[in-house]
Amino acid sequence: xxxxxIENWGEAPSVIDGPEPEPQTGEALVRMLATSLNPVxxxxxxxxxxxxxxxxxxxxxxxxxxxxxxxxEHPAGTRVWCHCTAGGFAELAAVPEERMVPVPSGxxxxxxxxxxxxxxxxxxxxxxRADLTLTDEVLVLGASGVVGQxxxxxxxxxxxxxxxxxxxxxxxAGLGAHATVDLTAExxxxxxxxxxxxxxxxxxxxxxxxxxxxxxxxxxxxxxxxQVGNASGPIVEMPAGPFRGGRLDLRGYxxxxxxWEDVASAYSExxxxxAAGQIDLPLEIVTLRELPEAWERQVRFATGGKxxxxxxx
Length: 313
Hints:
- The structure is a single chain.
- This protein has ten helices and 15 strands.
- It has helices spanning 39-45, 109-114, 117-129, 146-157, 169-173, 188-195, 209-216, 241-245, 260-275, 291-299; strands at 2-5, 14-17, 27-36, 63-70, 79-83, 92-96, 100-102, 137-141, 161-166, 179-182, 200-205, 219-227, 249-252, 283-287, 307-311.
- Strands 3, 4, 5, 6, 7, 14 and 15 form a seven-stranded mixed β-sheet that branches.
């Protein structure tokens, strides 16, 4: 069975022919149809993830879409999206029974897995954590990435005015945002002010760093920053005064911190929108044997705004 394997912390996975998994109590056996590469996979394999991680050697892979072979909860042959800490980068995977959601028809395996961890992050950050009202204006930092693209669409489809800030102008152009901002601008605070002269109510942040600091100046009274990712690094100095004076909230999002029922509901909702042609994502398809090269590109965020999806050979 072809599988990726992490031998030591901080190293890229190798691809080997390994033994088939033996599901334990509470696990199902699933044949992988598509899996995707996420920044959290890098964090887990580098021992930088805040939760529990398996010791090396282990098979990485945070999610997959697959066909059920053996399960207590789902009939054999059911197509499911599976969320797991590890194990997804293999032709067969033993996954938690309680973290599987059936995938509706009308959505390809590739898009279905891309709408998983990344899609849910963009969706729930907006629809669950932001407490949106119809009059709220939303600034998405990192909008040219996959999570950011879903966040823009989640806010726009709710009827909110959206400003998309990113590094890839071509990716930003097709999102349907009301205004765009170049994250590489020399004076980012001024660029945001030009796009949102009256300020914004919500910032969906995939970047952190100085972009998040600049966004604080655009927040209105009672504004909220929803912190989803830190592409610019995990640490930043932030001024305290605006949080007190503006009565601002800083809220975190992680799929591991949300109730599974809410995660499953969000995934089903996104997939139904995708099946109706209302959500699509830019994908790059590679094979499981190409995992080491894809891994190195993900480490460098050199994906061109596309989601890296891996298929079995």
